[in-house]
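Fold this complex.
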Amino acid sequence: MSAAPEAPALANRSRLARTAGARRTLSWGFIGRRALGSAVTLFFILVVNFFLFRVINPHPERTLARGRANTPEQIHLIAERLGLNQPLPQQFWTYLTNIFTGNLGVSYEYGEPVASMILQRLWPSLILVGTSTVLAIIIGLWIGKRAAWYRGRAFDKVSTTGTIIVYAMPDWWLGLLLFMLLAVGFGSFPGLFPIGGLNSPGMNPWSFAGVIDEAWHLTLPVLTLTLAYVAEYSIVMRSSMLDEMGEPYLQTARAKGLPDALVRRRHAAPNAMLPVMTMISLDLAFSVGGAITIETVFSIPGLGLLTSDALRIPDIPMLQGTFLMFSTVVVIANFLANLFYAVRDPRVKL
Amino acid sequence: MGIPVSSATAATEPPIGKTTFTVGTTSQVDSFNPLLGIESSATLVYDLMYDSLTQDSNKDLSLQPRLATSWSRSADGLTWTYHIRSGLKWSDGKPLTSKDVAYTLNRVISGGPAQANWGNFLTSVTKVTAPDEKTVLLHLDHPNATLPAIPIPIIPEHVWSHISDSQLTSFPNTPPNVVSSGPFRLVAGAAGSSTYQLEANPNYWGGRPKIDTLRFRVFKALDTEVQALVKGEIDFADGLSPLQVRALASRPGITGWPAIQSGVFDEIAFNTGSIDTKTGARIGDPNPAVLDPKFRYALNTAIDRAKIAKLAFMGGAKPATTVVTPDFSKFVWEPPRADAPRYDPAKAAELLTAAGYKRGHDGKLRLPNGAPMEPLRLIARPEDSSSLTTMELLKEWLGNLGIDSTVTSMDSTKLQNVILSGDYDIFEWGWSYAEDPDAMLIYFTCGQRGLLSDSWYCNSEYDKLYTAQKQQLDPAERSEQIKKMQAILYRDAPYLLTVYPMSEQAYRSDRFHGLNPKPMPNGSLLLDAASYLTVAPNVDAHGSAIALKGSSGSTENTNLIAIVGAGLAVLIAAGWAFARRRGKATAGDRE
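Structure:
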């Protein structure tokens, strides 16, 4: 099925051929094998999910009752409502059958279906972390590429030092710093941005003004996370690029008379992208998990906060739901990254 | 009919425009459904949305009428009669009668989530009836000493009777489907949301609130909340730290309010004898010393409570003696002078020697049987920095007495497991309870072991007094019994009380007034619906609310939003131009 030659001796040729537009096609067998692997991983996660949170605290009803409901009958009633008085195998069976019918259960803390709560909280996290990750990727790759190309020159020195300094700061601290400078203001300099939250109270989030208002609220947190993430990409891209720069095919490209910028953009960069791709796919997947510290500093009601709050009781159905979602997205992203590799890298056996 | 009434209102109240009061808090509402939610912020919202039969006075916490105008009981204490306010309406226009009250209370006593949430206020009540529209009768099988206080939110029968217990989880009770009767009506919000909003009920029987819109903003970081108050995005901030409130109070226009809290204390707790509640066999591995009441009591004077308040709570706490907090003044027991919990390590050493604990050659304290004492395991909770500091201080004080100890830290969910397994000696934690000391005293009864008792305390004399006070109808007699119970707890020392932590609040006094403490004069602000009724905007010489001027930042925001919009447009345009440049590249360029 494969269109590209696989012999190692022809590897360089295949690279050039690829940039000219040749594509390797995937076989169904390959996709099937990878999908099966992902499915097994997911089922394993499903089982672990059930037992993991019951180990934290087998009696969440006591946390819920503390200081409020105080007679033994009341505590018993809470356990009954949560289904905690059923034998463990029965709870496990309910959990499994529910999941395959798309029911993630009812949150202990909020008394509402977990799935709808996760959906409500998903998009603030996605917008916040997703936007920052995409921005960090674009900026980071650009910086990394240039820094490697002009290795040892001023751009390289400034960008590498700068990104590493920001990378070394804890992101909540960087967030607080930006928050004090730009949201609170200092001296006679006014605070430009709103202090935390996702919307101005009373604003309809679905109106045009509401969307702008939300973008306004998210500017500082997105800026913080982008700065925090940039170094990761620029550094990996820089070293990956340096590896490629020693390769003879670049010589060939130059020999053809291509301008330097095009050699970098068309030949070196795409090949340097391969190791970075795994990172990107996983990071984008992790972005659904939100960023607990930044959500805390800026009081953004995202999934990160939802999950960390749920640990307190622990709100077992909520934790099961969020962890299942996080792991599903990561497994799927991994699966897609595998396919991407298969298409782009001739060394992968199809 | 309606026209003269409204013009009269317009004449008496100055036209101040719409006033919004924004509250910053650190605790979110877990559910707007009063049969499900348990967080303190949820209880406050229920109080704003719904009326209850009775309420505590803001002045001195004495029982006041609310939906009920008066009440009486039969001589045997087995029947209570409540007379209900007449002419009241729900927000959908349907009349609010004694039938709604009977429905709500019957739902609570019939079991399910309603009972889990509110059942403790109706102990011994078997049936509630409404013989006419203005009367509610409670039938009991034993007298109940905590009646007539019933702070349960009364919900409309014509809405809730259609929602069975199993349907509660799909009934979040959020807008637009909320039918309520209280001073405020919920207009925006969802379980766990970071903002929610209520509007004044213009027809409230207790008078129209002086603020039109009441907003809540949930903050996850205290620094953010403080800055929001300084910047004027919120008018009131709750749950702050003592240092923050001290810093805020020095700013013009802001009033800091460190308050004594009702029913809140911190304690050093012991394992007084963990057992398997089914078999009665000992479980866990407590140090023999902490099982001995004499040993525990001896440590009472080894603790410097003033130092804990100063170092662990940064001054935001008062030294504590008993689990009944000072605001429950009728029930508070004071130890005799000689036994007062003063810091006196010499006395502690004396008491230990008297109890048989003597120092060995190495200077270390030995058990009464002469065996060396294993180091005591002190557990602190990382959620409160005060917890760790308290335990570090205790370690030092124990060391002075020749007792070795180790401090570990574990989060409260893990600590609960450890407590249930009995594998601990001492930990630091706190409680918060409401309405009546009974809510706290129950945790020291034998029946609570393996449930919410965290000291495994069990004393038959105490249990007898607990049952007796619960049914005691003579208030003076009941308060004597409750005092005796505290004396027993003091002597047996399952807990050594450390401090009563204060609540730290601050508000924009340049914009609002009428925030009254409950109870007077040092209590907390804005804990219940009644205290929100007195909050009013400051008015300038022209009669317009200063709060509105203060929030003029919104126009400035609009300008900034325009700038950001323009910036976004430029970015998009640049991106488009870049994409075009790449698209235009010729085939010759490519290779």
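The radius of gyration of chain A is 25 Å.
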